Amino acid sequence: MKLSKADDGRSPAHLHRSLTLEMVRVTERAAIAAAEWRGKGDEKAADEASVKAMRAELDRVSIAGRIVIGEGEEFECDDLYVGQPAGTGEGPEVDIAVDPLEGVTLCAKNQPDSLVVLAMAERGGLLNVARNVYMHKIAIGAEYPADTVSIEWSATENVKALAKTKGVPVSEITAIVLDRPRHAGLLEELRMAGVSVKLLSDGDIAGVIHAVNTEDTGVDIYLGSGGAPEGVLAAAALRCIGGQMQGKLILDTPDKRSRAREMGITDANRVYNVGDLASGDVLFSATGITDGSLIEGVKLRRQWVETSTVVMRSWSQTTRWIKARHAR
Ligand code: VTB
Ligand code: MG
Ligand code: MG
């Protein structure tokens, strides 16, 4: 096995494994609530339903939790805001990052790959970033040497270096990129280099996971910028499944810079690796809302509801797919 079972050495303690199943309950419940709003064209209602259900289920878990990545700041939202306590208050002290509806537009349009995502770590294990901050990201599989690509290089340099290490022409490299106007220059570079580009309309947590699972997906590299919270959540998953990612925060306004400083970020230009974004023992759970390439969506039937969840644990390097039937 390529991946070492050993953690990053930050702490010999680890989260109790039974917490993985508790997290599954939380993301399942939120996904069911959001699924009621699939295809209804109302992003806000879908998001609110997911948040409410997540909050209720999270508060039944025996943890002294604290939201470090949430829906926004305390003054902006009622629930799942940064700093809000979560859980019963009795149990291990943990930090929690959530995206109760990753791909809200996908859900509102009933298109593939909207997810409920939650990560849990020991206190201090997740980089604290505000909801409105973006991150430059680059991700490739675990099978390459650590210095194969760099977020400081141009896209052209990166795809050429990756192709060389992989031993294929650049035209056989597939990159995954969020389809946004801000990526026009990046796209042009990739076109010039002859790379095959898979454009994502939303959902770059799944995008990063696809890029490191090259054997399954055929995607070699993730390039571009997306939400910083999604970057931390993707890193939590990579801690469990392997894969390399570098991230650099985009702190392009005085407000974002000062909030980042408050949240403990001292070097605005720092390049973060997976272990800098999510350290110690980390748990990750994602339940599908709409059918997707990562997991199936919620099936709402007359008699029952079926959910599909992928849950991971870094300490044991386990990934489980949990399909559950719930009575209606
Ligand atoms: C990014 C991406 C997310 O929204 O945050 C994106 O990381 C933000 O979209 O996966 P904009 O560029 O339009 O602001 C998602 O696609 C969905 O939350
Ligand atoms: Mg969200
Ligand atoms: Mg999101």
UniProtKB/TrEMBL annotation:
Binding residues for Mn(2+) 1: 47, 71
Gene Ontology terms: cellular component: cytosol
Molecular functions per Gene Ontology: fructose 1,6-bisphosphate 1-phosphatase activity; metal ion binding
Domain of life: Bacteria
Keyword hit for Cytoplasm: no
Binding-site residues for Mn(2+) 2, renumbered to this chain: 99, 102, 230
Catalytic activity: beta-D-fructose 1,6-bisphosphate + H2O = beta-D-fructose 6-phosphate + phosphate
Pfam short name (any one): FBPase_glpX
GO biological processes: fructose 1,6-bisphosphate metabolic process; gluconeogenesis; glycerol metabolic process
Cofactor: Mn(2+)
Keywords from the named record: Carbohydrate metabolism, Hydrolase, Manganese, Metal-binding
Family: Belongs to the FBPase class 2 family.
Record's protein name: Fructose-1,6-bisphosphatase
Organism (species): Devosia riboflavina
Gene: glpX
